[in-house]
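Work through this:
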Amino acid sequence: MNALFGLQDSLHIHEGSPLQLWLKRHGACTVAKYSELLTVGGVGPVTFQAETRAKTFTAYIDPENKFSAADKFSQVVAPCYHITFKILVR
């Protein structure tokens, strides 16, 4: 998570090591969800998708503001269902 956190400002740059490229591709949804968290004051509420697209839940991340930005980032891991689906379809 720390590696992806460090790369979040360079997701649009398609260069780097194989690991960095993989993190950029598969971590984009997490970076987007973290940006959403920041737009609502850094604590939430943030809506997450559950098992299906029809099921969602709302969460507050560190409402007491005790954790670092990297720790908050690690709490908003968001799966990229559209990327996973494309891989499965191929």
